[in-house]
Amino acid sequence: MTDAPAHRILVVEDSPTQALQLQMTLERQGWSVTVCGDAESALEQLGRTMPDLAMVDYHLPRMNGDEFVRRVRLDMRTRGLPVLMLTDSHAADRERQGFDSGADAYVPKSVDTDILLSRVGALLRKGALPRPISQAPVAFRQSRLLVVDDSPTYLFFITAQLQDDGHEVVGVSSGREALETIAKEKFDCIVVDLVMPEMSGTELCQRLDMLRRQHDRLFQIIILTSRDSKEDMMRGLEAGADDFVGKASESEILKARIRALLRRKFLHEENLRISGEFRDKELELERTRDERRIAQERAAMTEALERSHAELEAAYRELQDTQSQLVQAAKMASLGALVAGIAHELNNPLAFVGNHLGTIARCLDNVAPEMEGHLSDKGARDLDKMRQRLDAVRLGVDRVEDLVVKLRTFSRLDEAEVKEVEVEESLESVLTLLQHKLSSRITVERKFNGPKRVTCQPGPLNQVLMNVVGNAIDAIDGAGTITLETARNGSMFHLSVRDTGHGIPAAIRDRICEPFFTTKPVGAGTGLGLSISYSIIQRHRGRLTFHSEEGQGTEVVIEIPMDGTSAAGPAAGEAGPVSPADPRTDTVARPASRSV
Fold first, then answer.
1. Where is the Histidine kinase domain (predicted)?
2. Which among 592, 589, 470, 591 is positioned nearest to 525, based on CA atoms?
3. What tens digit of pLDDT does each residue of 5-62 get?
4. I need a surface site. Which of 161, 191, 261, 304 has the fewest CB within 10 A?
5. Among residues 124, 157, 172, which one ends one of the domains?
């Protein structure tokens, strides 16, 4: 047994010699031993540290071993503590009393040491104590008694008897003094003399019973009387007493009655404590359930809010997109109206100038033969100069007329109905309007190999051409070239706008069609051009793709159906075609905005 674990053993023995002998024997086995000389100090020790085994002498001062075991078994937290009862008697009734009290084993003190150690080892092998309901310290304490008797001699006698039984006793001589003491201190049991001056024992019982009912005080009441009559007993019990004992009886009977009442009181307190702990556990469990339910509801609410937030964000983005399209459409419509107005205002004086210019030319041709023979050399030179200037004026008027025609073409931006359009004419009108940005630094190459006419919405298509060509011009910092190429790709009209600019950086290629995204300086771009252009091409069930390599330029490809049957937009529940990725280059085919 030398390698046995360091179990903790509590030895309750009033004989110092026997206690020391037991301690040395047990410690030689490697066990930790604590010695208490009486039951009261042992109960206090249990309140501090819970041992693995208690070895209790049956004969102890004030409180015997069997009563100690009963107190231990009353408390739920110490109920599973193994107890070995020790006695110097082999009497069968002692052994029976020890087991009846709740002891796990019974060993005479004279037993062989090996047998004693075997008993101890067997109890320790039963395993650890069951997990207590509460981890709170065990609140064992000495019971407190109040004795009320007007006889100083009997009061001294009974107080001494009860103190020898292990109780803390306070004695008073009257009912009034008893009530004052109870108001200030707590007691487990009150022993009341039946016959007292001023306030009888019966009246005091009534007031004590009312006090414990009103204030939820837990104490027992015993009436002591020298008149052991049935009528007195009935009156006392009806007044609220818990027991009735005659003074003529042996003091051991009173002690036994008090111990029985105290056991019932302590058991009641333990039941209340356990009920309270169960109630607290239930409340904690219910609180845990509530917290879990609240957490689940919060999670569900958060998920719903996130969904709502996502839906709101999507609706907000759609609203922004729609608003941007409306703003741009209104802007382009206003621009179209302005261009149409300018073209109209230019057309009237231009017709006036053209008509009079023809008249002047005819008149000059009529009078010139008559004047030529009469003019000096200087006059002949002036006449020739007049003819040259007249031709120059005619050339200027023709150019202005061409500009007016192109302005009228561009002014169809607000036309939403589907009709046939001369694509090359629309491109030329856009180039005319952007001529101030082209100047002489940018060369425009035209490779018109595709169909001349295509069915579409003229106004929105002109808006797309304006945005794409304008971006191509802005992408070229110095001198460069823009190539416009048309072709037919099956049933689709194919238009390519390719520039020799700086290209689109890889980091922003996925964003070039996002509404309000732009790399232009503040005030130079809104970030709406390509986003709106993408929407317009999608409405035509076409494709808008971008092929770009940084430093080598960008190509924008526009494809729309030739017949224009889907130019009004996809049917409900259908989606426009998505442009495939080009394996040769980086391709963007999403509502991204190249206002770069």
1. 341-564
2. 470
3. 589 999 999 999 999 999 999 999 999 999 999 988 998 888 888 899 999 998 888 8
4. 304
5. 124
Which structural domain range is residue 573 located in?
Answer: 416-588
Q: Which residues 6+ apart lie within 8 Å of 91 measured at CB? A: none
131 has a pLDDT exceeding 60: no
Within-domain flag for 337: yes
Domains: count for the chain: 4
pLDDT tens digits along 168-189: 999 999 999 999 999 999 998 9
Distance CA 510, CA 593 (A): 9
Q: How far apart are CA 221 and CA 227, in angstroms?
A: 18
Instruction: Report if residue 135 sits inside a domain.
Output: no
What is the C-alpha to C-alpha distance for residues 221 and 205, in angstroms, rounded to an integer?
A: 7
Q: Are residues 376 and 510 in the same domain?
A: no
- Tokens 């069930």 correspond to 541
DSSP codes joined into one string, 297-355:
HHHHHHHHHHHHHHHHHHHHHHHHHHHHHHHHHHHHHHHHHHHHHHHHHHHHHHHHHHH
Helix, strand, or coil (residue 146):
strand
Handedness of CA 470, 474, 479, 483 (dihedral sign): negative
435 & 572 share domain: yes
Return the ∠ at Cα 88 (arms to 86 and 93), rounded to 5°.
80
Strand ranges (DSSP E) for 162-213?
168-172, 189-193
Nearest to 431 by CA among 420, 421, 445: 445
CATH code, domain carrying 239: 3.40.50.2300
Helix H or strand E encompassing 223: strand 220-225
> Using CA atoms, how far apart are residues 237 and 58, in angstroms rounded to an integer?
34
- Alpha-carbon distance of 301 to 303, in angstroms, equals 5
- Give the helix/strand (H/E) hosting 97: helix 92-101
The token duo for 155 is 């009061």
Kindly state whether residues 584 and 459 are assigned to the same domain. yes
Residue 361 CA neighbour count, 13 Å, CB half: 14
How many Å apart are CA 278 and CA 133, to the nearest integer?
8
Residues in CB range of 126: below 8 A, 6 or more apart: 82
